[in-house]
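Quick illustration for those who missed Monday's session on complexes.
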Amino acid sequence: MKTRITEMLGIQHPVIQGGMHHVGFAELAAAVSNAGGLGIITGLTQGTPEKLANEIARCREMTDKPFGVNLTFLPSLTPPDYPGLIQAIIDGGVKVVETAGNNPAQWLPILKQHNIKVIHKCTSVRHALKAEAIGCDAVSVDGFECGGHPGEDDVPNFILLPRAADELTIPFVASGGMADGRSLVAALALGAEGINMGTRFIVTKEAPVHENVKQAILAASELDTRLVMRPLRNTERVLTNPSVERLLQKEAALGNDIKFDDIAAEVAGVYPKVMHNGDMDAGAWSCGMVAGLIHDQPTVQQLIDTIMAEAKTIIQQRLSGFIN
Ligand SMILES: Cc1cc2nc3c(=O)[nH]c(=O)nc-3n(C[C@H](O)[C@H](O)[C@H](O)COP(=O)(O)O)c2cc1C
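Prediction with flavin mononucleotide bound:
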């Protein structure tokens, strides 16, 4: 399939794997790129420029196809070494960066200077327009359904994507709730040039996470996610578990007086415990409503091949059947 996104990124299929903390390691990124999509290594999971350089080199050993690196900009008392991480990306010859979390304007000149395409992930039309104005090459439009941080506007993709299509000139991919060929065709119909998936890619053979994580997503329905950290205006969509319910009780009890320290036990340092150790009640971890559409654990190649075959059948048979 050819879209503005496949052309821009030099990939076969318009399917991107979004950055995922403690999930987006070289194994998953390489598997997605080898299957014709765009795999993305999560920069902050590596933490230091040296470790990121190492991970990029590992990924390059596993694929000769293009892959990207996610840089998430979060408010932090001790910010990561972003200039060092960017230098590791440049030195590693990576040609695509997915930015998220905050306006990437300050890092664009150096990325552009090295011919790196920047896809900014954002959750509103105004932020997408801002990304376009500052010179991002594409945006990933993340609807309210998404796993991770859906922002504070709560606009689902059936509205957000056509709104983005009406306003943007640069290409965009649909993110949040994407799982199969139906999602891809719907995203294309609403104006996107492809899809970005997070949660769906966790339940694949190659995703380097504990089997308990995959089983938890397989067991979950679309009703099993919760929004946490709303009072801190740092909303995250997570899979429910006892610590998430405890966190929500604290939020209800403390209201707007809540501080990060009040919930640190449920949200700080959780990812390695969940993703690596399989300790499913260690705290809150991101998961999309799309869990309700995930019923199998294919290889990444099988997943992407099935998405593309299903999309083609829907377009050629079901949709064209309506008008012929
Ligand atoms: C476990 C998990 C961790 C994530 N970590 C990050 C991250 O570190 N940085 C980021 O930009 N997005 C992160 N995301 C968001 C994904 O890149 C993607 O935008 C989102 O999952 C799309 O929604 P979906 O899960 O419905 O496919 C994460 C998502 C999940 C499920």
